[in-house]
Known about the structure:
mainly alpha
Amino acid sequence: MGKNKKEALIFTSMTCFLMVVGMSFYNVIISVGATSEVFIQVAAGLLPALAVALVLDIFVVSKIAKGLAFKLLKPSDAVIKKVLTISSFMVCGMVICMSLYGTLAHYGFGDNFLSHYLAILGLNFICALPLQLLVVGPLARFLFTRMFPAAPSTQSA
């Protein structure tokens, strides 16, 4: 979304922030349960996770996701189909990458690395896809269109 690079960066940052916050709460609750520690742990890991997610989103995942999506989509496809296709590919790529980040951050690269990674990957995918498609995507679009309303069309009389 966005008419220029600045607006696209703002939209990407909003979406990324909302997803990182949502997924951080999800992962901390899975890890320690719904305790008073959840907010502290989410706050402690938020900035590093957001930095990693933004870099991955902007420089790696979005390029691959959009490339794959546009191989499947036609220019005449409905906007909603384009949005859902790109969002789904973005979720797949980001879950793969951020689950790796989370596994390394919390468990390191030890003997059980692969089993931890695969378990986290599956659990994250289960949450991330509906979170993106049903909550974060619509919320980010709503907020973005309020921040950057489309210019009114001029009609000649």
